[in-house]
UniProtKB/TrEMBL annotation:
Pathway: Carbohydrate metabolism; galactose metabolism
Source domain of life: Bacteria
Pfam families named among the record's database cross-references: Epimerase
Keywords annotated in UniProt: Carbohydrate metabolism, Isomerase, NAD
Key word tRNA-binding present: no
Organism the protein comes from: Asaia krungthepensis NRIC 0535
Family: Belongs to the NAD(P)-dependent epimerase/dehydratase family.
The protein, known as: UDP-glucose 4-epimerase
Length: 328
């Protein structure tokens, strides 16, 4: 099969590219390189340096491609940032996706897998795990922007027959088990790489945002899924959408607090990590854990790499070996 991967130079997208290649597929990457890295794309892959906000350029890529499906990762995706600049999130995530969906319809690409998010279940203090049919209540403009795109996809199927899988995934983490790719955000805002950098002595004490949540130790609880498991989830989702569109939650089903993550990095690194309590970060729900039973039942998918210490170990190895990430 021949796939277009938008955002293929980003953290999750680049691991999906590896998963598709390992499975014997042909891959083309589209990325605007605003946050992605050339070095994250394996050699020999066709790359379009295109911004999805550019409707004509997007249309041209889809027109040339003869793609069996599109895997759509490209987005801006920081909850905290979206609380500070909501309109940028609505504009960029919505319009870029609209351009892509329109180009798929124009050029008769029949399938699209969309990276949605658990952030559309951002209710204040929710009991877990969250099934895919739980009420939608985004806690941030980021979550809302993803939900808007889910609704476009719903109508793109009903009226144009574009089949889609919306994968609402929880916290993607870890690094390629073979060490070919890892996580490199600038600046880094995600918990696991920040804790690892503290363990490696590359940053001062880290801050834990909020220690008064109604959780077992007061810090937020998240469901961490290894990016390799996420890549196989995309392949499994593609098998589901010949006849109908689907929406699934994708996670490990287990929740770990921010302080649990610090303990895990201490176990893996063998080092003591300094941290301090800090105020809550805007837009953070107390707990997000996925109920992925529907996806597991329908596809047979199961996470194999998502033990927390294994996630941390793969991330630690990559970060230790790449002090400059993918370089400048
Ligand atoms: N977090 C933290 N300190 C940091 C970075 C993140 O306490 O320096 C917390 C954050 O507030 C959230 C959790 O770690 O409770 C996971 O945040 P992350 O940004 O990694 O992922 P998100 O859940 O926002 O997708």
């Amino acid at each position: 099969m021949r796939y277009l991967v938008t955002g293929g130079a980003g953290f999750v997208g680049s691991h999906a590219v590896l998963g598709l290649l390992d499975d014997g597929h042909e891959v083309v990457v589209l990325d605007n390189f605003s946050t992605g890295h050339r070095g994250a794309i394996p050699a020999g892959i066709d790359v379009h340096h295109v911004d999805l906000m550019d409707a004509a350029a997007t249309n041209a890529v889809l027109g040339e491609g003869r793609f069996d499906a599109v895997l759509h990762f490209a987005a801006i995706s920081l909850v905290g940032e979206s609380m500070a600049d909501p309109l940028r999130y609505f504009e960029q995530n919505y319009i870029s996706s609209l351009n892509l969906i329109r180009a798929c319809i124009t050029h008769d690409v029949r399938k699209l897998v969309f990276s949605s998010t658990a952030a559309l279940f951002g209710g204040p203090e929710r009991d877990d795990p969250i099934p895919h049919d739980a009420p939608i209540d985004p806690g941030s403009p980021y979550g809302e922007s993803k939900f808007m795109i889910e609704r476009v996809l719903h109508w793109a199927d009903r009226i144009h027959g574009l089949r889609s899988a919306c994968l609402r995934y929880f916290n993607a983490a870890g690094a390629d088990v073979a060490g070919r790719a890892g996580e490199d955000h600038r600046p880094e805002t995600h918990l696991i790489p920040i804790v690892i950098d503290a363990a490696l002595g590359r940053r001062p004490a880290l801050q834990v945002f909020g220690t008064d949540y109604p959780t077992h130790d007061g810090s937020c609880v998240r469901d961490y899924l290894h990016v390799g498991d996420l890549a196989t989830a995309y392949l499994s989702a593609l098998t589901q959408i010949d006849e109908r569109s689907v929406v699934y939650n994708i996670g490990s089903g287990r929740g770990y607090s921010n302080i649990d993550v610090i303990r895990s990095v201490e176990r893996v690194s063998g080092r003591k990590i300094p941290w301090e309590a800090a105020p809550r970060r805007g837009g953070d729900p107390a707990t997000l854990i996925a109920d992925s039973d529907a996806f597991r039942r329908d596809t047979g998918w199961t996470p194999r790499l998502s033990e927390l210490d294994h996630i941390v170990e793969t991330a630690f190895r990559w970060r230790e070996a790449h002090p400059e990430g993918y370089g400048l």
